[in-house]
Design goal:
4-stranded antiparallel sheet, 82 residues, alpha+beta
Length: 82
């Protein structure tokens, strides 16, 4: 009977630690650059919050990166977790 309580307490602590540390808030920062035509706006930065595990947040953030072509204008968006 004496061993049961410490083991239960230890198991509860481990479970609480694992569950609470799985998700965190991360900032996804996307830098947007335009090229191809004169008079285009300067680079801009867009940020938003992602609450998830680091691996999933990084994957979701980086999935927004890409290069897009509209006529002569090229838009390059590069996103990273901070």
């Amino acid at each position: 009977m004496k061993l049961r309580f410490p083991m239960l307490l230890a198991a509860s602590f481990v479970c609480a630690t694992i569950l609470s540390s799985c998700t965190r808030d991360y900032i996804c920062r996307c830098t947007i650059k335009y090229s191809g035509e004169p008079g285009l706006p300067d680079s801009s930065v867009r940020e938003y919050e992602i609450r998830d595990t680091k691996k999933k947040a990084t994957s979701a953030c980086e999935a927004n990166s890409g290069t897009y072509q509209t006529g002569n204008v090229t838009t390059e968006e590069t996103c990273k977790i901070y």
